[in-house]
Specification:
The protein is built from 13 helices and 18 strands. With 425 residues, it is an alpha+beta fold.
Length: 425
């Protein structure tokens, strides 16, 4: 959520930033209209309260002088009813204004490429070279089936389209990758690992801006009024919801593994074969809560922690600077990490590293004190995948495939896997 003062003090700035994002600048006028109505009601209420206070002061004085006070009591009662009515209207106006503000996306930071869609994203850098094959590389769905480690039909049989099963060393590879990533982030990158619930309330989703914008993409259990997590970002960021953090607590850096559940697994016209777009997948998430002045530098560190894993695995990747029209709803700046998948002949996103500035913390109530005794301020939050499966597995299977159909295990994983290659038993 944006600061209401931004709408009041810089409405033209907000309108222009919303245009850059492809959002309706009319939000500004609508919000300001409610805000003006709110201020009018507050002024009316304060005037009535002042008048009632004056009457309350007069009544005992008049009573002491044995002068009539019934008329003043009646006036005070009527004023009280009027104040109650104003308070009710004020609550309605606040709710309407806040509902509108929850629909307004974050504003892009300076330097973010301006454009309406992904065609305007900018390649910031690329690492590694695409592997040259002396045979026709296969896609992961063929490799997995032939090695008997990936079973798409049985996943569909159990749960329907958008689900899959792993088997044998395929399941082990997924487990090893999760363990290795968590160990790397905690032992080398300074994160604290946390384990969190996989079901969350609407307040948590509102705090990280999945609600109300993406309600149709969430799995919901109405009897319990709980949602399956679309990403660990939701419960992990909300660990400090409605808290005031002391100076020595920042920065906070958490890593967490959870399954992720999303109803919208694909997009019209996109490749949905295999396991690149699915309803349930595993992910290791990285979350930071920092001072505002530290968030740009932490954003670069976050990207470095994610790309460090890709380099350790020897996977060719590129970093995309997302344009204003392609960024996530809550992001002020976003860098996507994409790995090359030669069997699919495409780049696959395995991490989206975002700086939300104070957008999430204002919604979730995450504050900090700059120094002891100082007034609390909203912290900045950042997050990114470190990394997301199963696209990471796709990249490993397709890049490390051999002419005989086997898969070479990346050197850094061989000890944990107990083998140097994946072959059909």
């Amino acid at each position: 959520m944006l600061d209401i003062r931004l709408f009041r003090e810089q409405p033209d700035f907000v309108r222009e930033k919303l245009r850059q994002r492809g959002s309706d600048p009319a939000f500004v006028d609508q919000i300001l209209a409610f805000d003006e109505k709110r201020r009018q009601l507050v002024q009316e209420g304060e005037a009535l309260k002042a008048k009632r206070n004056e009457i309350s002061r007069q009544i005992p004085l008049l009573a002491k002088e044995k002068k009539p006070i019934d008329a003043l009591k009646e006036e005070s009662r009527a004023i009280g009813e009027a104040i109650t009515g104003i308070d009710a209207k004020l609550a309605e106006v606040d709710a309407a204004r806040d509902e509108l503000m929850l629909q307004v996306p974050n504003l892009p930071m300076e330097g973010v490429p301006v454009g309406p869609d992904e065609a305007h994203n900018r390649v910031a850098r690329t690492w590694g070279e695409k592997r040259a094959f002396d045979f026709a590389p296969k896609a992961h769905w063929d490799l997995g089936a032939e090695l008997d480690i990936l079973d798409l039909p049985r996943g569909v049989k159990i749960s329907g389209s958008g689900f899959y099963t792993l088997k044998g060393i395929g399941a082990k590879l997924e487990r090893v990758l999760i363990q290795w990533m968590l160990d790397t982030h905690t032992a080398q990158n300074g994160y604290t690992e946390v384990s969190v619930p996989y079901l969350v309330g609407s307040k948590a989703l509102l705090g990280t801006s999945q609600l109300p914008k993406f309600a149709d993409q969430l799995y919901y259990a109405p009897e319990d009024q709980l949602y399956l997590v679309p990403t660990a970002e939701v419960p992990v960021t909300n660990l400090h919801a409605d808290e005031i953090l002391e100076p020595e607590q920042l920065p906070i850096s958490y890593c967490c593994h959870t399954p992720c559940f999303r109803r919208e697994a694909g997009a019209a016209g996109r490749e949905n074969r295999g396991i690149s777009r699915i309803h349930q997948f595993h992910k290791v998430e990285l979350v930071h809560i920092v001072r505002p002045e530290d968030s740009p530098a932490m954003h670069e560190k976050l990207v470095g922690h994610a790309t460090g894993l890709l380099e350790a695995l020897g996977l060719t990747y590129r970093v995309l600077e997302l344009c204003t029209g392609d960024m996530g709803f809550g992001a002020a700046r976003c860098l996507d990490l994409e790995v090359w998948a030669p069997g699919m002949n495409t780049w696959l996103e395995v991490s989206s590293c975002s700086n939300f500035e104070a957008f999430q913390s204002r919604r979730a109530g995450i504050k900090y004190r700059p120094a002891k005794g100082e007034k609390p301020q909203f912290a900045h939050t950042l997050n990114g995948s470190g990394l997301a499966l199963p696209r990471l597995m796709i990249a490993i299977l397709e890049n490390y495939q051999q002419a005989d159909g086997s898969i070479k295990v990346p050197e850094i994983l061989q000890g944990r896997m107990g083998t140097g290659s994946i072959t059909k038993n």
